């Protein structure tokens, strides 16, 4: 039995919520758009509004502010309350999810602030990750029949690949069932029939090789070790290092890994690159590495464990198995 045949199994709902999908279609029809900033920017902008209720769809579902009843059609409002997608808050309503736009895609993700263990994050890193994937797809002309997005979150990476290569089978994997639920909703909204969701710890639960592997893993050293932020105790680099080591072994000939991550730079040195350097010396591999942004999430330097870190850089690693 081929790997492709083996994966043709009924899709798990992962807590699929039809009313959330209906809200997404309604927002699409309303031409809703929202570009999600960093959490600190999000908080600062919300603080400007003070206690004023939100009055627009962007207030309600982007900035995630409480809003007065009546912004939505009454029947929809009741349905969302019944399914806990809205909640009452001191005489107002508040959405328990957020919606962001990426190109022509609409993506549901966790409400602000993302404090729960199973939160699904979307923000500037997602946009940079998307740009890395899009650049690779434009410049690489290898045939993509099978691709995977590791730690898919909202499914943004998997969706971009599925859009660009409708003939490919694209697998979105995560250990977080809420992420897989959001990904399935988001893929349905985009009409992507070539994307499937699977639970997997990196690639452990998948078989076979891939023509494209993409990943945007968490890369912070989070004191609470929340899965959506914590990349490991080695200043957040552990998971990214693991993804490199395991993914390059699963690349097909001509296949590529596109990894977007963050690196805590100490005394001018890059510990992530040092940790994967030996693996990248494999003569069957060719790779390119660069900083995309030299300084992201600077507020994290105030957190415990970052006392000797001088900056956190957003980086891109592309590894290709030679033909």
Task: Characterize the structure shown.
This protein is an alpha/beta fold and 323 residues long. It folds into 2 domains: 18-102, no CATH class; 124-321, Vaccinia Virus protein VP39 (Rossmann fold), CATH 3.40.50.150. 31% of the residues lie in helices and 24% in strands. The chain is built from 10 helices and 11 strands. The protein has helices at residues 3-6, 18-29, 39-49, 57-61, 74-82, 124-139, 156-164, 177-190, 238-248, 271-280, and strands spanning 86-89, 92-95, 97-102, 105-110, 146-150, 169-174, 195-199, 210-215, 251-265, 285-293, 311-321. The strands form 3 sheets. The chain has a 7-stranded mixed sheet with strand order 7-6-5-8-9-11-10, sandwiched between helices. It has a two-stranded antiparallel ribbon with strand order 1-2. Strands 3-4 form a two-stranded antiparallel ribbon. A hairpin with a 2-residue loop joins strand 3 and strand 4 (105-110). Helix 2 crosses helix 8 (177-190). The longest helix is centred in the middle third of the chain and has 16 residues, at 124-139. It is globular, with a radius of gyration of 20 Å.
The CATH first-level class of the largest domain comes to Alpha Beta
Total of domains: 2
According to DSSP, the number of beta strands is: 11
Helix content: 25-40%
Coarse shape: globular
Strand adjacency order, main sheet? 7-6-5-8-9-11-10
CATH architecture of the largest domain: 3-Layer(aba) Sandwich
Element order: H for helix, E for strand: HHHHHEEEEHEHEHEEHEHEE
How does the major sheet shape up?
7 strands, mixed
- The percent range for strand residues is 15-25%
Relevant CATH superfamily of the largest domain: Vaccinia Virus protein VP39
* CATH topological fold name of the largest domain: Rossmann fold
Q: Identify low-pLDDT runs.
A: 1-11
Give the CA-CA distance, first to last residue: 26 Å
| Average of per-residue pLDDT values | 92
Oligomer: single chain
* Tally of DSSP helical segments: 10
